[in-house]
């Protein structure tokens, strides 16, 4: 019997299929792919993330599960973003990748029939009602895990009884999730930190600043909507004859950034070329780690425009790069506040203070991340135990 969620999802799905008949709409949003695949033949352990940051985390997680989980099933990672799908398919992680199914009864029926998911791992806050209810229907026991979870709110009445494991990033995330999921009797729930740090945790290495850095400041994952703030900071850096690297969040905005920089009569070069008094523009995915290995300081995008959501500040931190965010920390307010209070990252309330921003003490950063390592390692081991019990 259809419930109110199923009826709403069915109606939305019907409207989307009608829209997909317009070629320009389907080419942009890949609606038919979200309803009809192609999806690989299962069975699979299904991992799902929204965009690049979450999928990078799940890609690393899949590598470690293949090492640590006895008789690990084949792994499928799905994403909402077409551009991220290309990144996943080009990885060497030994996984399958596909566009995520629409949260529609028809799409999920086709997806589950083809993929035959043995379990589902949701990254961060991807709590799609249809994904949760579909896995509950096909599984004899709770088979859904939430990892690196962030939770603010969800539609009332969502059934969380299919969730058997939840590792949330902060105490606030865990407390809010408990309030809505208390009746579901989830077996394992904990504060497990941000799993974007998982590769660093596995290596067991101390945080070390890059040796002989050639980049004074890297602006990471910036949006064109942040241009006004970004421009002031870049100009400030160039006036001091610093070397700057700009990593756009979206490749589709690379040319817009190039034009905007040129309009300011700034010298623009192409990464990996770096020079004092110039902006080096990154135009390919997957270059952030390489850039950070040469950087003194980093400024994280998504934090200079209200509503976007601050991007991954852990990546520069674990690379030993002094890290700064802007005034907006949508999606990560608690984590950012904790890190600022602990002196681990700096936060600008306006770009006027950019040149004199605080540079966090490397020893403070190292101590903080060591504590995070213990938290993340423990929660990861409990996920492996949960999955092991699931496949007995």
The SS-based structural class is alpha/beta
Characterize the main sheet. Answer: 7 strands, parallel
Distance between the termini: 32 Å
How would the global form be characterised? globular
Secondary structure: number of strands: 14
Poorly predicted segments: none
Description of the structure:
The protein has 392 residues and is an alpha/beta fold. The chain contains 15 helices and 14 strands. A seven-stranded parallel beta sheet has the order 3-2-1-4-5-6-7, sandwiched between helices. A seven-stranded parallel beta sheet has the order 10-11-9-8-12-13-14. It is globular and about 65 Å long. It starts with a helix and ends with a helix. The mean pLDDT is 91.
Describe the SSE topology.
Elements: H1 4-19, H2 23-29, H3 31-36, E1 44-49, H4 52-68, E2 75-79, H5 82-89, E3 96-99, H6 105-115, E4 117-123, H7 129-138, E5 144-149, E6 163-168, H8 171-181, E7 188-191, H9 198-203, E8 215-222, H10 227-239, E9 244-248, H11 254-263, E10 268-270, E11 279-281, H12 288-292, E12 295-300, H13 314-318, E13 322-325, H14 333-341, E14 346-347, H15 362-390
Parallel strand pairs: 1-2, 1-4, 2-3, 4-5, 5-6, 6-7, 8-9, 8-12, 9-11, 10-11, 12-13, 13-14
Quick gist of this model?
It is built from 15 helices and 14 strands.
Which characteristics define this entry?
7-stranded parallel beta sheet, 392 residues, alpha/beta, 18% strand
């Amino acid at each position: 019997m259809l419930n109110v969620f199923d009826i709403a999802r069915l109606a939305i799905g019907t409207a989307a299929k009608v829209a997909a008949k317009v070629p320009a709409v389907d080419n942009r949003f890949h609606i038919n792919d979200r309803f009809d695949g192609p999806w690989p033949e299962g069975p699979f352990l299904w991992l799902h993330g929204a965009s690049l940051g979450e999928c990078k985390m799940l890609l690393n997680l899949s590598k470690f599960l293949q090492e640590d989980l006895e008789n690990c099933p084949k792994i499928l990672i799905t994403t909402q973003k077409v551009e991220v799908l290309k990144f996943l398919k080009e990885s060497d992680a030994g996984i399958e990748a596909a566009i995520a199914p629409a949260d529609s009864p028809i799409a999920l029926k086709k997806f589950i029939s083809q993929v035959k998911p043995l379990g589902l791992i949701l990254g961060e806050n991807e709590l799609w009602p249809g994904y949760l209810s579909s896995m509950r229907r096909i599984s004899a026991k709770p088979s859904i895990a939430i990892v690196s979870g962030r939770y603010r709110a969800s539609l009332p009445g969502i059934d969380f009884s299919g969730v058997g494991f939840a590792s949330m990033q902060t105490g606030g995330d865990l407390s809010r999730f408990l309030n809505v999921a208390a009746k579901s009797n989830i077996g394992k729930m904990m504060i497990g930190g941000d799993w974007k740090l998982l590769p660093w945790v596995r290596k067991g290495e101390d945080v070390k600043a890059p040796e002989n850095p050639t980049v004074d400041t890297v602006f990471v994952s910036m949006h064109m909507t942040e241009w006004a703030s970004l421009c002031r900071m870049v100009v400030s850096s160039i006036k001091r004859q610093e070397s700057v690297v700009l990593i756009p969040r979206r490749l589709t905005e690379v040319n817009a950034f190039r034009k905007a920089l040129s309009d300011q009569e700034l010298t623009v070069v192409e990464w990996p070329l770096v020079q004092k008094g110039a902006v080096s523009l990154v135009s390919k995915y997957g270059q952030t780690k390489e850039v950070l290995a040469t950087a003194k300081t980093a400024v994280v995008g998504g934090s200079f425009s209200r509503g976007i959501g601050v991007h991954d500040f852990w990546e520069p931190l674990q690379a030993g790069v002094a890290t700064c965010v802007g005034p907006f920390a949508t999606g990560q307010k608690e984590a950012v506040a904790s890190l600022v209070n602990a002196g681990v990252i700096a936060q600008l309330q306006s770009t006027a203070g950019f040149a004199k921003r605080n540079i966090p003490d490397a020893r403070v950063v190292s101590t903080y991340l060591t504590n995070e390592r213990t938290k993340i390692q423990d929660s990861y081991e409990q996920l492996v135990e949960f999955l092991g019990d699931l496949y007995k």
